Amino acid sequence: MARVVSYFLAICNLFCRSSKMDLETSLKECSAALELFLDNRFSDALALLKPWKAQSMYHAMGYSSILVMQAGMTFEPKDMDAAMTSLREALQTCQSFRKKTGIVETLASLWYRQTADNLTEEEMHAELCYAEVLLQKAALTFLDESIIGFIKGGMRIRNSYQIFKECQTMASVTKDMEERKSTHVHFRGGISMGIGSFNLMLSLLPSRVLRVMEFLGFSGDREVGLSELRQGAGSNSLRSILSALTLLMYHLYITVILGTGEGNLTEAEALLVPYTQRFPNGALILFYTARIALLKGNFTFLRDDPSE
Ligand SMILES: *[C@@H]1O[C@H](CO)[C@@H](O)[C@H](O)[C@H]1NC(C)=O
Ligand SMILES: *[C@@H]1O[C@H](CO)[C@@H](O)[C@H](O)[C@H]1NC(C)=O
Ligand SMILES: *[C@@H]1O[C@H](CO)[C@@H](O)[C@H](O)[C@H]1NC(C)=O
């Protein structure tokens, strides 16, 4: 597996540099980088994405996602700055692919939301990536912990949510595109992940807060969230694993912390199976495998842990 990826890297270094990056290639490279990441080869993943992060939205998004995760783990100011800079650049890259709306359209969209059936496939992906990067930026702003940071973060989250909703509308009017474009499955996977995570997270808020959020146009339906995430995890797309990881986080941590006690260990184990086979040593995968063993009270597994 790792060897195949290395060859891919080498070949790409030879050929991809000079030509323009198309959407399909950028999705392939982004998922190659994700595989490297899951295989603990973090610097290789960054090296694959870095050369194209100014020209391709998926490279930009992947690159900033890795830096954000790093910052979220270390909390060091240096890492936070690097992540913030990469997010700013990623937003610019995504913005350059988004459909330009003139002043007339902007005014018109104040009255009726543009259903945007005129967007190209690339422009649709740009909307999705933009929303995702915005959400990461919001998360990082919250870590800043000032009241200004809180308000800015809140506004970004709202903006991101609205774009996800618009993408969902777009996906429902462009059903026939699915057969034509191999990239469309990734677009749908992204929507499932975004809408699913939003619904699930909001559903965890106290009901009074949730009512305010619903008044502001958010929706926090737990069942919708779970079913979107399951759909995303089951689709064979770039973001399948991210949907799966969100579900695992819910079943293995959030339900335990909140004491709702409805985490489904059977489902968690089934979700993890394909990834334990592909990335037997992946840090993230081992982390969840150990958590399942712990929750099941399987101390045989924990004692067998080679790190001890
Ligand atoms: C946009 O979509 C509308 C309706 O689907 C169509 O009539 C129009 O020609 C499209 N415009 C462009 C520029 O593609
Ligand atoms: C847990 O998940 C499994 C597999 O997805 C399902 O068959 C089972 O009904 C679920 N259990 C509960 C309590 O929801
Ligand atoms: C407990 O972990 C061991 C070691 O990984 C495994 O062989 C065994 O099947 C697990 N038992 C259960 C009940 O899951």
Describe the structure.
The protein is an all-alpha fold and about 300 residues long. It has a domain at about 20-155. It is about 75% helix and about 0% strand. It has 16 helices and no strands. It has helices spanning about 1-15, 25-40, 40-50, 55-75, 75-95, 105-110, 120-145, 145-175, 175-180, 185-205, 205-215, 220-235, 240-260, 265-280, 285-295, 300-305. Helix 3 (about 40-50) packs antiparallel against helix 4 (about 55-75) and helix 14 (about 265-280) packs antiparallel against helix 15 (about 285-295). The longest helix is centred in the middle third of the chain and has 27 residues, at about 145-175. It is globular and about 60 Å long. The site of one 2-acetamido-2-deoxy-beta-D-glucopyranose has 6 residues, from helix 15 and helix 16. Keywords: Repeat, TPR repeat. This is Tetratricopeptide repeat domain 39B. InterPro entries: IML2/TPR_39 (IPR019412).
Give the proportion of residues in helices. over 70%
Strand content: under 5%
Given helix and strand content, the structural type is mainly alpha
Overall mean confidence score, pLDDT: 84
* Uncertain stretches of 5 or more adjacent residues: none
Counted by DSSP, the helix tally is 16
List the topology elements.
Elements lengths: L1 H14 L7 H16 L3 H8 L7 H18 L2 H21 L5 H9 L9 H23 L3 H27 L3 H4 L3 H20 L3 H9 L6 H13 L5 H19 L6 H14 L4 H14 L2 H6 L4
The chain binds 2-acetamido-2-deoxy-beta-D-glucopyranose (3 copies).
Key features of this structure:
globular; IML2/TPR_39; mainly alpha; 76% helix; repeat; binds 2-acetamido-2-deoxy-beta-D-glucopyranose; 308 residues; 16 helices; TPR repeat
